[in-house]
Design a protein that fits this description.
The structure is a homodimer of 214-residue chains.
Chain A lengths: L1 H5 L14 H16 L9 H8 L3 H7 L3 H12 L11 H21 L1 H11 L2 H29 L8 H18 L9 H11 L15
């Protein structure tokens, strides 16, 4: 898979010195090769990965604590890189984060491997937990931090819980990318989504009309 | 399962006369019994269901075209009933629809059977397609119709696509109920979600500030 080859492995748990990067890449590529050959995740043993990569088992264990951590690094190498936050405004940072989710959605649709890997990962509680802890949770914390900054700067309402605000932004994008694999993911969707959630759905002519319940 | 017993089977594909309702109920309960015994969906044959219900196979085929349609009716009998739309305003109708999703989420968490059934259904493309056609798609059409009415009445902006608006409302609720099974689903969430999406996330003091891109 060219994706894994084109970028360095970003594994937080990898302890290798710079010159061992080639070894790490060979190991990640061995996992990708086995997955592409149709070997199910549950049958991917460290023995088999070591044999395919032409290294000893200890070489793998020196870099990753186990199959779960290694596998999460394989997924991260295949995913789009983390978003560069422009920092010009909360709105622009949110658009960049949504754009990362949109690009990951498009990539998952075009990559049979990535598609299968997500599906298998979700059916393996241990690997899903490792992916959640290293990828999902840090991203979520970053999003919430950006929203908190927006509240402090006056870009966001202060009377709404940031966790709910985060779900209002992320929910629609995940609905289209993860839950509804045939949904439209056009260019400009991230901007439109963020701006519409910020502006609200009420007609602009009566922006201060409060809802019946409030 | 008491849920299936407490309400009539709502199968659109069931052709029975009133007096055959008991037979339909016996068949639905036979499926529930087999599922509760741990029989996987893939092994639930019409033969086995007929034997468990004490009816002939023809009795089942007279009411349902196949396993998929029958199974969707089993799921619908276990789910919360369709929302009663108050019709007082678009906002109130949207709250009722969100509340139905929230209640279904809570029920799925407390019902091992319903939880398993959704998981198995999603891994069976034919049954998922039948559920989608009979449950998901009609609900989606109803939601979009309510939003279109809101646009005509001036309750909603006319410059945003109703499909996107629908995803802005449904996405956050599905994120919490389906994708994140440990998320908070408190009382009042449906009202808060609808009102926040309608009002937008910008501070109330500057409601007419437009976004940098618009």
């Amino acid at each position: 898979m060219s994706l894994a080859e084109s970028r360095p492995v970003r594994g937080g748990s990898a302890k290798g010195r710079p010159r061992s990067e080639a070894v790490e890449r060979a190991i990640v590529e061995a996992v990708v090769k086995l997955l592409e050959e149709g070997v199910p995740l549950s049958e991917l043993s460290i023995e088999r990965i070591a044999r395919t990569a032409g290294v000893g088992k200890a070489t793998i264990y020196r870099r990753w604590r186990g199959k779960e951590e290694l596998f999460v690094d394989v997924v991260r190498a295949a995913e789009p890189p983390d978003a560069d936050l422009p920092g010009t405004s909360m709105r622009d940072d949110l658009v960049a984060l949504m754009e990362q989710l949109r690009r990951r959605g498009l990539m998952t649709r075009s990559s049979v491997l990535l598609h299968d890997v997500y599906a298998q990962m979700k059916s393996s509680p241990k690997i899903w937990a490792a992916y959640h802890a290293t990828v999902v949770e840090p991203r979520r914390r970053l999003q919430v931090e950006i929203l908190r900054r927006g509240q402090r700067n006056g870009e966001l309402r202060a009377d709404v819980d940031v966790e709910l605000m985060n779900d209002l932004l992320v929910g629609p994008m995940l609905l289209r990318t993860v839950m509804r694999p045939d949904a439209d993911l056009p260019e400009g969707l991230s901007e439109l989504l963020v701006d519409t959630v910020l502006d609200g759905l009420r007609p602009v002519s009566s922006p201060s009309v409060s809802s019946p319940s409030s």
